[in-house]
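Q: Given only this backbone (580 positions), what sequence would you predict?
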C-alpha cells in the first residue's frame, strides 16, 4: 500500500520534465560565460530588442562551434538544446528567428564589430593569462554560396563586400569575404575584422600597422614591448615605413634580388648554426620531423639595414623542389639535343680520341657527359675469298653516359630549401631573439589558418541570411569569437598536460600530450540530463571516464551540465613563460 501511495508523487515529480542529451556545447558555453560575452556585447551594443544582442551572439557562437548546422537555421538548432543552460535565459527557440537575428546583426554593425572583438581580446588576455608579447597577423578567406549581388554592388557602404578574390580555400568559383586576425600564443585571436573578399594582404598589413600601437596599448604594451609577426606580404616599402618603432619578424619575399643573393652566399659560405627540430609533434619513421639550421646576415631594403637570418630546412619546400626537378629534366634534355647526330664509330683511334674529348666537353647546368672509347673488330669491306677467312680491322666505338653534377644538384636543392627571416629584433642583448627563437616565433604564425579551418564551411551562411552588406561584418565577428573560444579550450587542455605531466586520451584512446579541442568536441556526446519543472537539472547518465578527463582538464566539473550560471577558475601555466 505504501508503494502505491508513492506512485502519484513520483509521477507528479516527473511531470513536465524535459530530457536532454548533451555533448560539447555546455563546456563551450562555460568558456563564453567566463569571457563575459553576453554582458560585454550588451554593454557595447545599445538595444531595446526582446532578445539582447549578447544572447544572440553567444547562441550563434555555440551554433558555429557545433559544426552541425548552418547559422541561418539557428532556430532549428536551438529546438534540441537546453537554452537556459547554454545562454542563461529561459527563452524559446522561436525567439531566435531570422528577423531577430537580422536585427541583432544590424545593431552589432552600428556599434562596431571590431570594437567588440578588441574588448573580448582584452578580456581573454586578462582572464586566461595570455602572453601578448608576440602577435601574429594573418588573413583568411571564407567562401559562401549565392550571388550576393547586393553585397558586391554596394558602393557607398563601409560594410565589407562579398565578391571574388584570391581564395585561400582553393574555391575560386565561390564568392568570399576576408577576415584579418591578430593572434597570440597558439593562434588565439585578440583582434579581428571582416574585409572585402578581394582585399590585398599588402594593403591589409599597412592598415593594421597604422593602428597596431593603439590596439596593443589596450593590453598595456608599448611599441617596443611586442613583436609583430606576419608573412612576406608585409615586406613592402610602405609597410616597413609604417612600422616605426615596432619590432617585427617576417619572411623576405623572393622578388627582392637581395633574397636570392643572400641565400646563395650563405650556401657557399657553409657556416651554419644547427637549430635542430622545432616541431611540437614528434616525427615518425615515414615522416621525420624537419631539422633546421641558420646563417646570420644583413640586408638593406629601401635605405634601411635589417637583420636577415637564412633558414634551411631538410624537409625542403615542395613547390621550390618541383622547380629544381623541372630544371634537372630540362638540363638533361639540353645535353641530349647536343649529343644528337654525333658520330659514334671511327676507323682511326686518333679521330675517336678527338671526338671523345669534344663530347666530354658537352654539359649543362646540372649534367655532364662521360664518354668512353670501346675498340672492336669489324670485317673489312667486300666479300672475302673462299680460300682464306675474312680479314678484320680495328674500329673504335664511342659510348657515353649523361650523369648529374652531384655538387651542383645538391647546391640547387639546398638553395631551394632556404628562406630568409627579416627582422629588426637584435640577436643579442636586451629584448633579443637568437636564430632559433626567431624561427620559433615566426612558425607560430601558422596556427591562425589551421584553427580557422574548422569554421570555414561555405554552407554556414546563405544569400538570404546576409541580404544586407553590414551583416557580413557582424557574421565575421561571430566566427572570430567562436575561434577564440575554440583556441582557449585547446590551450587549457595543453596547459593541464604540461602542469600535471599527465597525457590525455586522444584518438582511439591513445594517450596524447597534444590534445585538441576537436578531440573533445567529437568525444563528449551522450551526457543525459533531465530538467524538472522547477528548472532543476539532474544528471541521469554521467560523463564516461574519457569525458570526465576532458572536463577536468578544461578546469570544469559536472555542474557545467546542471548550472546555467556555472563559472570556473581558468587553469594557468605553473612555470614562468619566457618572453622575447
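A: Predicted residues:
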Amino acid at each position: 500500500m505504501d508503494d502505491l501511495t508513492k506512485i502519484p508523487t513520483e509521477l507528479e515529480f516527473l511531470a513536465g520534465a524535459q530530457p536532454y542529451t548533451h555533448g560539447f556545447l555546455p563546456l563551450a558555453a562555460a568558456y563564453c560565460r567566463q569571457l563575459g560575452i553576453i554582458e560585454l556585447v550588451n554593454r557595447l551594443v545599445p538595444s531595446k530588442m526582446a532578445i539582447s544582442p549578447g544572447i544572440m551572439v553567444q547562441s550563434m557562437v555555440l551554433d558555429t562551434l557545433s559544426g552541425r548546422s548552418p547559422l541561418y537555421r539557428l532556430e532549428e538548432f536551438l529546438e534540441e538544446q537546453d537554452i537556459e543552460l547554454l545562454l542563461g535565459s529561459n527563452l524559446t527557440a522561436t525567439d531566435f528567428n531570422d528577423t531577430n537575428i537580422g536585427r541583432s546583426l544590424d545593431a552589432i554593425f552600428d556599434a562596431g564589430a571590431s570594437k567588440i572583438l578588441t574588448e573580448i581580446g582584452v578580456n581573454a588576455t586578462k582572464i586566461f593569462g595570455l602572453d601578448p608579447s608576440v602577435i601574429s597577423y594573418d588573413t583568411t578567406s571564407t567562401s559562401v554560396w549565392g550571388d550576393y549581388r547586393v553585397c558586391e554592388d554596394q558602393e557607398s557602404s563601409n560594410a565589407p563586400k562579398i565578391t571574388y578574390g584570391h581564395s585561400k580555400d582553393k574555391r575560386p568559383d565561390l564568392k568570399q569575404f576576408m577576415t584579418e586576425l591578430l593572434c597570440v600564443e597558439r593562434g588565439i585571436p585578440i583582434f579581428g575584422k571582416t574585409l572585402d573578399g578581394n582585399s590585398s594582404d599588402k594593403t591589409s598589413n599597412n592598415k593594421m600597422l597604422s593602428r597596431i600601437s593603439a590596439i596593443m596599448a589596450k593590453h598595456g604594451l608599448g611599441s617596443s614591448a611586442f613583436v609583430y609577426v606576419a608573412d612576406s606580404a608585409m615586406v613592402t616599402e610602405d609597410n616597413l615605413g609604417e612600422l616605426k618603432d615596432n619590432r617585427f619578424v617576417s619572411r623576405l619575399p623572393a622578388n627582392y634580388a637581395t633574397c636570392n643573393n643572400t641565400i646563395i652566399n650563405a650556401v657557399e659560405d657553409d657556416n651554419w648554426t644547427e637549430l635542430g627540430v622545432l616541431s611540437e609533434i614528434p616525427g615518425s619513421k615515414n615522416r621525420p620531423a624537419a631539422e633546421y639550421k641558420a646563417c646570420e646576415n644583413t640586408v638593406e631594403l629601401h635605405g634601411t639595414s635589417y637583420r636577415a637570418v637564412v633558414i634551411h630546412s631538410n624537409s625542403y619546400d615542395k613547390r621550390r623542389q618541383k622547380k629544381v626537378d623541372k630544371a634537372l629534366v630540362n638540363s638533361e634534355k639540353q645535353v641530349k639535343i647536343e649529343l644528337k647526330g654525333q658520330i659514334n664509330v671511327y676507323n682511326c683511334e686518333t679521330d675517336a680520341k678527338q671526338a671523345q674529348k669534344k663530347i666530354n666537353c658537352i654539359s649543362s647546368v646540372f649534367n655532364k657527359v662521360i664518354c668512353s672509347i670501346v675498340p672492336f673488330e669489324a670485317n673489312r669491306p667486300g666479300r672475302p675469298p673462299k680460300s682464306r677467312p675474312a680479314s678484320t680491322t680495328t674500329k673504335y666505338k664511342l659510348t657515353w653516359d649523361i650523369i648529374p653534377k652531384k655538387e651542383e644538384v645538391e647546391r640547387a636543392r639546398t638553395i631551394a630549401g632556404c628562406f630568409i627571416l627579416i627582422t629588426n629584433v637584435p640577436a643579442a642583448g636586451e629584448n633579443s631573439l637568437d636564430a632559433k627563437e626567431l624561427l620559433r616565433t615566426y612558425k607560430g604564425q601558422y596556427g591562425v589558418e589551421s584553427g580557422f579551418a574548422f569554421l570555414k564551411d561555405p554552407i554556414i551562411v546563405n544569400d538570404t541570411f546576409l541580404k544586407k552588406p553590414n551583416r557580413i561584418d557582424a557574421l565575421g565577428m561571430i566566427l572570430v569569437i567562436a575561434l577564440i573560444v575554440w583556441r582557449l579550450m585547446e590551450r587549457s587542455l595543453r596547459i593541464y598536460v604540461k602542469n600535471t605531466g599527465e597525457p590525455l586520451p586522444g584518438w582511439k584512446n591513445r594517450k596524447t600530450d597534444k590534445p585538441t579541442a576537436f578531440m573533445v568536441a567529437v568525444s563528449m556526446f551522450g551526457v543525459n540530463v533531465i530538467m524538472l519543472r522547477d528548472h532543476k537539472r539532474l544528471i541521469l547518465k554521467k560523463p564516461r571516464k574519457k569525458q570526465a578527463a576532458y572536463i577536468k582538464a578544461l578546469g570544469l566539473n559536472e555542474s557545467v551540465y546542471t548550472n546555467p550560471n556555472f563559472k570556473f577558475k581558468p587553469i594557468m601555466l605553473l612555470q614562468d613563460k619566457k618572453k622575447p
